[in-house]
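Project outcomes to date are best conveyed with an example. Our students and postdoctoral researchers have been running inverse folding experiments weekly, and each run begins with a structure described purely in tokens. The record below, which covers 336 residues, was selected by the lab manager from last quarter's runs and is presented without edits.
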């Protein structure tokens, strides 16, 4: 009898041991997070970038200015090249490359805003394209006069790595996030009016030019600092793709903002986890997942639209069926 009892308890013992091992692995992971400063900074940076994406990316997509994210991110690369050139040449030794990146980003925002004062998104996209070409050309020009050992620092603005954030990056990201969240909470309605109908808002007495430039400049500063932290490629993917995906599915501004935050944060967390599991780039995984969210959202919208069309067709057929059923009894006595 005793051996039979042991054989019956074996599956239960295996289940308990598996749960215990899973709990121990989870505790080890939490211990690794708590003991790894670079991983802590990566998680904090992912959270802050998700907040930046939900505030600035949402309104850029509303305005049809998704390309501005790429333009500003690459303008930051040109500004960083100018900063390094001024440092290495001795002309302005104290000039930090991040100052050049911020200056070029604001330049792109002002040029874009000036071209789009009438509210026409196509003109702003053209201005972003011209600024983008100018910044990249200047960056390539200055690279010939910068020591080769410093050139990778410029390309770091293009690729970036969320696992390489330092304390200064976190401080700058945190300060920018606080300012951007405050401005968005204060002027959310005005930003929506400017994004949806700038000409009509001007006719109703709203100072649209002030909100127009405020929105573009704050978005440019946020994108520039995020580019310094995680690179232009990840910034473009995280800021634009979740906002575009959420805009396809949700109808309210609040719903879009919350959905953008969720998609951006989840993509980055999965990217960081995958970098430890499969030894891959966290930025690449996060960018792929963010881009895939847009494709999924487009399919969801198509299915929803198809369901609505079928529902309207059924509703339009319902009265005719009712009329038919109402007329059918009256015809029977006539035939009789």
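After processing, the design step wrote out the following sequence:
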């Amino acid at each position: 009898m005793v051996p039979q009892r042991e054989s019956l308890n074996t599956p239960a013992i295996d289940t308990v041991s598996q749960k215990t091992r899973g709990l121990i692995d989870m505790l080890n992971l939490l211990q690794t997070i708590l003991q790894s400063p670079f991983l802590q900074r990566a998680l904090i940076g992912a959270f802050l970038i998700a907040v930046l994406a939900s505030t600035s990316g949402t309104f850029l997509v509303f305005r049809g200015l998704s390309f501005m994210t790429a333009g500003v991110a690459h303008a930051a690369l040109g500004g960083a090249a100018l900063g390094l050139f001024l440092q290495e040449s001795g002309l302005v030794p104290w000039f930090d490359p991040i100052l050049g990146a911020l200056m070029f980003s604001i330049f792109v925002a002002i040029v874009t805003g000036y071209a789009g004062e009438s509210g026409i998104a196509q003109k702003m996209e053209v201005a972003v394209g011209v600024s983008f070409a100018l910044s990249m050309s200047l960056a390539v020009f200055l690279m010939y006069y910068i020591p080769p050992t410093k050139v990778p620092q410029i390309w770091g603005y293009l690729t970036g790595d969320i696992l390489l954030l330092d304390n200064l990056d976190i401080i700058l990201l945190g300060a920018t996030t606080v300012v951007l969240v405050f401005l968005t909470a204060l002027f959310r309605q005005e930003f929506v009016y400017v994004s949806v109908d700038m000409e009509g808002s001007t006719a109703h007495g709203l100072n649209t030019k002030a909100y127009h430039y405020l929105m573009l400049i704050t978005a440019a500063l946020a994108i520039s600092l995020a580019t310094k932290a995680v690179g232009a490629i990840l910034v473009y993917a995280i800021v634009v793709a979740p906002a575009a995906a959420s805009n396809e599915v949700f109808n309210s501004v609040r719903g879009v903002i919350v959905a953008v935050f969720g998609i951006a944060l989840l993509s980055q967390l999965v990217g960081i986890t995958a970098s430890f599991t499969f030894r891959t780039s966290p930025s690449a995984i996060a960018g792929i997942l963010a881009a895939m969210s847009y494709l999924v959202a487009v399919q969801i919208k198509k299915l929803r639209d198809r369901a609505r069309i079928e529902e309207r067709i059924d509703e339009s057929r319902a009265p005719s069926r009712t009329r038919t059923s109402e007329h059918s009894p009256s015809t029977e006595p006539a035939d009789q």
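The mean pLDDT is 81. DSSP finds twelve helices and no strands in the chain. The training component of this project remains on track.
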